Amino acid sequence: MIKINLLPFRAARKQENIRRQISVYLLSVVLILLVSGYSWWHYSSKLSRLKAEKVQKTKELATYAETTKKIKAIKTKIAQIEAKLKVIRGLEEKKTGPVLLLDEISTAVPKDRVWLSALSDKNGILSLSGTARDNDTVALFMTNLEKAAHIKSVDLNSTVLRVLKAQNLNLTNFVLTCKTYAYKEKAKPKPRRGRGKRR
Questions:
Q1: Ramachandran area for residue 159 (φ above 0: left; ψ -120 to 50: alpha; else beta)
Q2: Third-level CATH fold of 55-183
Q3: pTM for the whole thing?
Q4: Residue ranges per domain, the chain?
């Protein structure tokens, strides 16, 4: 009977397995190092690029901040000028408005047919009272007033017949109310929404 010693073969096989495991381990370590190095290089480059962009954007923002500051100053000056112009327009309107209104009233009065006795203006409401030859003359005076540029509307408050026996004349006393350029409508309050009545 022939006996074969297998111990050297088993030992060689064991050593081959160990060598293979060491090779796989070393290759894995090298691969991990390569991947880590590439990742570090990639993110380092990206970080450097982002830092450079940040510096550039910061410089651009500084230039825009200066421009924004100038624009803000210009807007402030424009607002101040507009406010001054508004005040000037208001003063001119208050200065010339009454003068033009009086001129229009005097132009609207039919000559030698209407005589004004009182005139008052409050909050854009002009009250006129006087004497006219007759009711037709009062109507003509109202029509002339309605054509005036600084008068919005004309209302007849009252007319009273006035008899002058000594002169044998019948005249008409009248009171008119006009809304002028200075009149402003009051804002009507919004109706409250109440709950419906339950029945």
A1: beta
A2: Gyrase A; domain 2 (3.30.1360)
A3: 0.47
A4: 55-183
